[in-house]
Amino acid sequence: MMFKKYHCKSILLISILVFLFCFTSANAFMKGQKKYHELTETDCFRVPEVHKIFKQVLAAADTSSNRIPKLILTKDDIDPWVFCLKNGEVIISRKAIDACYQDVDQSVGDARISLLIGHELSHLAKDDFWEQSAFAFSSQETSGAMSDLFEDVMKNKELKADEYGFFYSSIAGFDVQLVLDYQGESFFQHWERYMMQDMSVPSKGDHPSADERTQRLDQKLIQFQEDLNLFYNGISLYQVGKFSSARTFLNAFKEEYSGRAVFNALGLIEYELAMDHLRKSDPQKADQFMLSTIVDTRTRAENLRKTFATRTKQSDDHAFKEHIEHAIDHFKMAKKKDPFYVPARINLSSALILAEYYNEAITVLEEALSITHKTNVIQPLLTAQIYNNLSIARYKDGLQIDVDLSKKAMGYLSQSIESYQKLPASYYNLAVLSEINHLDAHGFFQTFLQFESTGNYAQIAENTLGIRHTTQQRCPLDVIGESPIPLKPFMDAETDNLITKLGLRHKPNKIDGHVIDTYTNDKMKILCINRVVQLVDCVFEFSNYFSEIKMQLPRPCRVLEMLADIKVFVYEGFALKVHDNHVLRVIYFTL
């Protein structure tokens, strides 16, 4: 009975505090608008680097629809040194920056500041404000009664923000292990010691201790690495066309970290499966225009998977509709996870165009353009992709009402080229629309081939221009070399010995009863499923330019275009990662 009374009083007290929070939130928000004295590069030479790191971590993090995160660096003596506000501002003081970089290499300092940023972005994404506000508005008597109820909740939220900050930092490319252990001390212990030197900063009873935070992340590190391997292995399998296995890995990862990246990747898998079926049931619709996606499914993938002769046009049409609807659902979820994540909107618009939801695609793309106008962190490539898809959506929408919008579509493509001159799709689509309008398309096809000289669309452009290749093709393995680990039907003693000699780190896992073994070092990754080597990803040891290598190889089965201006050319049994005409890595995989 006493417990029930206490429980009821607690609920009433919480309700009153939440009411007070809602009633005074406007006033609190205005307090959040305090003007801070800006920390400039003149004051601290690390300012540009911190802004750069913020953009990197922001690109990896989830965000809330209520706000656009913005970094404010201040030279004011503030308490705490790092915090975030409801309007999306992440405030970092000079003292916080100094604490991160004191007496350490830049890579260590970068990892530390990236964790701080990721921690605050996690609070913003999860709207972790009402508890803090409730405490801020409570009286001394009330706060004493409530502290027992909320202290554990707030500490857990801080620890969870550490975990997500750790995750965002790692996805953004920082060495998060340096945060947990640098010369025998964790960053949290260093931070606490550094703060103790500043007597103006009181200890926070509602924050976990340095040892508690370190211990929590130490415990999570092994599981986190396993989870992260699920994501990276899923992406690798997706890149080489092993969609079923990729989906299994990504779904397992989603159970722990259901962020925008995993939903976006799952959407791309469904999109590619839909495109495969569309090319069988309606090849004209599939290949008429080049739609922009983060991973461009512009070439055929039939050679990578078994097909069944019993399939019919009707069954492929049904399968296309099923997969494209699943893709739309996943892209919408990625957009919901982060409303300012432009790549998800671009991918969603491509799926909507294929599904003939042109008006909805136009709305999504116009929203994406609005986002590019609100923030300065959007890459020109993404803006160009938005205009490219907008041109196709407008043109197709006009056809539905018997209105020729080809000239308007060509105008959007011109804007696409103004934004980013190296997007092949813009030139290809200009060529197609020029042909529709009985204009000379040769110049656009020629420019297209300067940027995209291989793949299905390149073959169409070459056929139009009457280009024929006479270069003698060689055996692919003579060009790229053989896999350092044999791709056998099973792992034998020889395979185990080779892996041991290479000094690879072993990371075991289990998914749905399947035994997963990942072996890695700085130059190589080997993925095995149930004692079968599925893929070997390693640094390309030759110095050849891709422009020279590709002439000796058959046409790729797929071409994937990544955000970092990296392309993945997928052939039968291997794939090449290319940047700026240099082959970076080669991936060998089983068919």
Question: Main attributes?
Answer:
3 domains, 3-stranded mixed sheet, alpha+beta, signal, disordered N terminus, Serine Threonine Protein Phosphatase 5, Tetratricopeptide repeat, 8-stranded antiparallel sheet, 591 residues, globular, metal-binding
Q: Would you write up a description of this structure?
A:
InterPro entries: Peptidase_M48, TPR-like_helical_dom_sf. Its cofactor is Zn(2+). GO terms for molecular function: metal ion binding; metalloendopeptidase activity. Keywords: Hydrolase, Metal-binding, Metalloprotease, Protease, Signal, Zinc. This protein has 591 residues and is α+β, with helices and mostly antiparallel strands. It folds into 3 domains: 36-208, no CATH class; 258-465, Serine Threonine Protein Phosphatase 5, Tetratricopeptide repeat (Alpha Horseshoe), CATH 1.25.40.10; 476-589, no CATH class. It has 23 helices and 11 strands. The protein has helices spanning 2-31, 47-60, 94-101, 106-125, 130-137, 140-171, 177-180, 187-196, 210-239, 243-254, 260-281, 283-287, 313-337, 342-354, 358-374, 380-400, 406-419, 424-436, 442-451, 456-465, 476-480, 493-502, 546-549, and strands at 70-74, 82-84, 89-93, 505-511, 514-520, 524-529, 532-539, 558-561, 566-570, 574-579, 582-589. An 8-stranded antiparallel sheet has the order 4-5-6-7-11-10-9-8, with helices on one face. A 3-stranded mixed sheet has the order 1-3-2. It is globular. It starts with a helix and ends with a strand.
